[in-house]
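Appendix B: a complete holo record

For completeness, this appendix reproduces one full record from the ligand-bound portion of the collection. The bound molecule is pyridoxal-5'-phosphate. The inputs are the chain sequence and the ligand SMILES; the output is the full three-dimensional arrangement of the complex, encoded as structure tokens. No fields have been trimmed.
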Amino acid sequence: MTIQVLNEGYQNDLQGFYVSKAERCYLYDQDGKQYIDMAMAGGSAILGHAQPEIQQALQQQLSLGSLYTAPTPLAHEYANLLSQSVTPYQDFIFCSTGSEATMRAIRIAKAYTGKKKIAVFSGCWHGSHDFLLIEEDYQSPLDSPRAALKSAGTPVELLEHLLLLPYNHQAAVKLIKEHANDIAMVFIEPVQGSNPRDDISGFLHSLRNVCNENNILLGFDEVITGGRLAVGGGQSYFNITADIATYGKTLGGGLPIGIVAGKKDIMDCIRNAPLFMGGTFSANPLSLTAGLTLINYLLNHPEIYQQINLAGQRLRQEINQFCQLHNINAHMMGVASLSRLVFCKRHIASRRERDTHEVSWDKQAEFYLLLKKRAVYIGGNRINFISSTHSSKVIDKVIKAYQECLFEWHQQGII
Ligand SMILES: Cc1ncc(COP(=O)(O)O)c(C=O)c1O
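The structure of the chain with pyridoxal-5'-phosphate bound, as generated:
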């Protein structure tokens, strides 16, 4: 009999790599070999792994019990802190993952507006529930993308409830106007993980305007950006207020969390409709404790954002200079402390352009294996996340490893 774990991360290309310990910016495999971690728990571990203040707070909370399924003042304390520092809102739904949060945001938007469709963007990722497990089929014209199911076993009928929009393309605004009567919410990651970029502010503002003018809700999926770009996430970074926002990852301090926040009249429909929002692990005291400790720490150490954002900038700059110097067909794109290597020289405006011009995903796996041999671990989504524990010496090592691997591939004529 062969027992298999079929969802152990999305990376089955690392040849028997199993983590036994994580500390600061390092992972350790079963033989005790140390790796610089650039995945950082999918971006969640902004203060590094096993952060002492969070560990201490968790140990204290553990002694008081880990799950109550009854109200706890911690939820109110956390909601207060969120409303003072993360969002402009006072009403929150807590759940356990980013996927749950986006699923609930969709339910709220549809119930509040009475409209049928959610508009999302080509290249988006909003989690693993059926509703948004879609991708662009890439056969359709750039300015009117068609959605296809990303997974077998999900109902094709759900596609009727979606409008897929081109990302970072003004045709999106035209499509939103044309379908305004059907669209409950335009839902977007302020920065798409698949092509993290700093030049997206104008596009986001144009979405805010068209949603205002056409009575459509604007939802920001801040599961990556919340707490990562700034404590207040993409909304504060790009100076835009969404009507509904979803959070997860970083704001859980390393423990599972999902959060939906929204304008009062929208969130009121949860009680009025009423909408179902329960869950066994929702607002569990451990996640709340870790999240509270993390946000307080970030508020007391605002210099962290300057440090990690500068480190991200340096990572991109030094890799890009190296590629230009050696005429290597690659560049690193990103914003603040998140970056991604793109295996082509040309500027890309979207994930569709990225996928069209770079070497295949399977081939890329070989590149990341080369980096792993140099003791640098990049996660399955290929995003490099920098934490406050990545010192400049650590970043030097990451840059050197990237440069060596890029040069090796260049010499082999791959890029
Ligand atoms: C923007 C975005 N939304 C939602 C999710 C889903 O979050 P989770 O994996 O916690 O379900 C993710 C996860 O990567 C994400 O990046």
